[in-house]
Write a structure and sequence with these properties.
Length: 358
């Protein structure tokens, strides 16, 4: 038996969570099916993929777009992440997300994608504290008091002293405006996903804010990584990003380690098959049986990382178009039970390489 790790309590405003390892917002991935699978496998809280304020204000509950505002009781509590440029639009957009059923509003000040920065969204706001804090205040003022508002940040635009000062100005100002928690990713916006996440900065941030709630992010690909970040930095919780795509078992594995148990064996091929099928059936509910094959393809590619013959399985999943194709892949590669594997970074991240860990 391993020594039991004493976990900190995690509270996000009025929301009390029984475990401090949660699923991050993942653009293009953390839709309703992925969130539900994560909840079934041990995640106590998940975040929807990031949505633009303009989109939220215009989107209608039509079949092709209803997945963005689709929330069910099984996944509660669930957060919605909001991104945009105009502070005036954040309040109305946040209110619509609350009306759709989301329990938390998370503001994205962390996205480092070039086209996002070019439109003065996401991580760009770390360069303009006044605008960032106006966004926070307008959002906090717009939604009911019992709905927590949180913020996602990177450690700054770059590693200059000016960027550092702006980071802490936004951090302190956000808490003063009433946010319930701040998630900090240990890379800069300029750094994007290259190089290691600086966990020592997370430790510094937690010391700075004292009793206020900080969640850490960056380089969490194994269950042990989650516990290591909690132990080394003192943050209140951690958010698993790409480490959870195709590996929702990471949450129950982290729970097992926290109980002092040995790391569970990687899920067997039949265990993987059952979860993959569950995921597809959930996707059918929001995308429809005809359309869900293509959006599920990217998940199949990620799930393949746990298969001993992951390269061949990945190639087959990449050609999936519909349920019949999906079943062919499962029958071929998951028909006989055998032990699974823990994915390597190469298998998990694919062609973009190990330096781009989220």
């Amino acid at each position: 038996m391993h020594e039991t790790f004493r976990l900190p309590e995690l509270e996000i405003g009025s929301i009390k969570l029984d475990f401090p390892v949660v699923q991050a917002a993942l653009s293009g991935y953390s839709d309703w099916p992925m969130r539900v699978i994560a909840r079934r496998l041990g995640a106590c809280y998940t975040l929807c993929e990031v949505m633009l304020d303009q989109f939220v204000l215009k989107v209608k509950q039509r079949h092709k777009t209803r997945r963005f505002l689709y929330v069910t009781d099984e996944e509660r509590p669930v957060g919605a992440q909001l991104m945009g440029a105009d502070p005036k639009q954040f309040g109305p957009a946040a209110l619509r997300l609350v009306e759709a059923g989301f329990d938390v509003i998370d503001i994205n000040f962390g996205c480092p994608v070039k086209k996002v920065l070019g439109r003065c969204r996401g991580g760009y706001h770390l360069s303009q504290p006044d605008v960032a804090l106006e966004i926070v205040q307008r959002t906090r003022d717009a939604v009911p008091g019992h709905i927590p508002v949180t913020v996602k940040m990177r450690r700054g635009m770059d590693d200059t002293a000016e960027s550092r000062d702006k980071f802490f100005g936004i951090l302190d100002g956000a808490f003063d405006a009433g946010v319930a928690a701040v998630t900090v990713h240990g890379r800069t916006v300029e750094q994007r996903y290259v190089g290691p996440s600086r966990w020592s900065f997370l430790e510094e941030v937690k010391r700075h804010v004292g009793e206020r709630t900080i969640l850490g992010s960056g380089d969490l690909f194994r269950a042990q990584d989650c516990l290591d970040m909690l132990a080394q930095t003192g943050v209140n919780g951690v958010t698993v990003a790409r480490g959870a795509i195709g590996n929702p078992w990471i949450f129950e594995q982290a729970r097992a380690l926290a109980r002092g148990e040995k790391l569970p064996a990687a899920p067997s091929l039949w265990e993987q098959r059952e979860v993959i099928l569950q995921h597809f059936r959930l996707a059918e509910q929001v995308y429809g049986s005809v359309r869900c094959g293509v959006p599920m393809r990217k998940f199949g590619i990620k799930y393949s990382a746990l298969h001993p013959q992951w390269k061949e399985v990945r190639e087959d999943f990449a050609r999936v178009k519909d349920l019949s194709d999906w079943k062919v892949v499962l029958d071929r590669w998951y028909g006989d039970d055998s032990p699974g594997r823990y994915p390597s970074l190469e298998a998990h991240l694919g062609k973009r390489g190990c330096d781009e860990a989220a």
